């Protein structure tokens, strides 16, 4: 539970809001109390989603369908307003912990408890399916444990049967490790996807670990589609049924009703150690919450007018200039017993940069440092700032052991608001856990993947879509810019997870026929594949791999074979090595990446000029994105009690933020803690030997 902010509503329909229970990409969940004293979990949809007529129509249908779902193991809907400016849905409040919390704290559950858990969740899914809905996100975090049994919650992404696995932004819906193969590969969905997820949940409950391992989402999804689950430790009595639930083909899985029958009866006993005490404590805490007072409105004369030197990006909505900073300073002063006049000496905080500044990735690290310094200078030039900022840089030289020492040093500095980085290709889970343990917001700008358990982290903020989803942007190009009736995917298994991640996210361009041509992992030539492309009359080719050198070889062999269509690939292939090695064959190739070209943005003209003036060169890749990262952190710091505890609440504020950056809008989507992919996947095209920035994939 988290206190309400000044922006939160004090009433929603018939409910008085008490605290925040959570927030995600779709909206915010509050604990509310009715006039009669009944507690409810009230989910309010964000206005940007509600403004979409298609989304509102879907929400209306799904709210009506959810209200018809009945059963002892489904949390009932107690109220809704689908026509409100910010529509909302209320369900009964369950004070128990989640299955994920219990297993993480206490380990695997006893076999009789797992049987009871599975039987009752299967009954809940039967009720969902009988209503014509699919849940699509059955996972330990969406199973609450009450004294009499589990409760299935969160129908925020439920869809009618027959819907595809992709949203309007073409992102996989569900949680890697618990979603079905057909969800991971954008196939048609049916009740079987929920049964597969139930099987994953039961493995987790019985063994303490998910059946397809941990690690990067791409790795987990790859294993879900292509590899057998790890069922070691699953009780023998449960093994046949769980194995059937985890069949790759939905037709081979039992229905939810059959699962409930198989697990019910003798041997199913609901006994969870420590549950009674946990429920009692949470119930007492919820019932003791007083109704909050209405937010206090502080009247002031407004911030001083900034000088011309103050505004680095004049007119750019994405600048790091903090509107309202004078009010924050006034509040900080009154907390210390002041008179309401902004103090002469402002609090001084730091933003840490965890970077490779001397190792193999020093160019990217230097770009981060330069972007951060410009943003901090701009912030400090404000006359209405609430605090000053400085940059603390720590160099890990690209070394894993040194990175851990860097993380420890940064985490030990109490004046650090947040850390940006690391700047390498992968955010290692061991480093993420150090910052997580310290409660320090970690803002990742450039890393294309992470080995952290990102679903479970509370302080990891991802400002870019990871490499594994970039291929989604190619669908937009093939649908809207350069339609191709036939598309050939050249699958390069030299990096099997990367090639699968590209291929699995492609078949979504309207009217296109896709075929896949695989080469061997050791192939030095793409000539046979190139000839097959030309013989098939393909209008576009997608290189599904991660090697710049092999991608360049593919481009040259295609050109030599006479291919004149569009070549496409994703960020890992896009590097100076590709342009150098491919030469003229690179012309016209399109790449999906996560960084912009600030020199091509009108909103970044002043930033680009300032960068040239100070550093003698145009901004390098990731400099502009780091500038925006500083602005996001400063905005979060302004809206927390920074004067007393600078880092407390910064991560949570970031996740609830919608920040208009210089490069794009930064808005966080659900449990991934990552920004919205619709604006985060960007397209570039090779034009006369150089990259030309085309813009966000969804709007090119």
Q: Name the beta content range.
A: 15-25%
> What is the spatial order of strands in the main beta sheet?
19-18-20-21-22-26-27
Number of domains: 4
For the secondary structure, the number of strands is 27
Could you name the CATH class of the largest domain? Answer: Alpha Beta
* Alpha carbon gap, first and last residue: 41 Å
Rg over CA atoms, rounded to whole Å, is 26 Å
Weakly predicted, low-confidence segments: 156-172, 296-343, 641-645
The coarse silhouette is globular
CATH architecture of the largest domain: 3-Layer(aba) Sandwich
The whole-number mean of residue pLDDT values reads: 84
Tally of individual helices: 23
Q: Into which percent range does the helicity of residues fall?
A: 25-40%
Give me the secondary-structure category.
alpha/beta
CATH topology title of the largest domain = Rossmann fold
CATH homologous superfamily heading of the largest domain: Response regulator
Question: Biggest sheet: strands, sense, closure?
Answer: 7 strands, mixed
Write a concise keyword list for the protein shown above.
4 domains, Phosphorylase Kinase, domain 1, Transferase(Phosphotransferase), domain 1, Rossmann fold, 27 strands, 700 residues, alpha/beta, six-stranded antiparallel β-sheet, single chain, seven-stranded mixed β-sheet
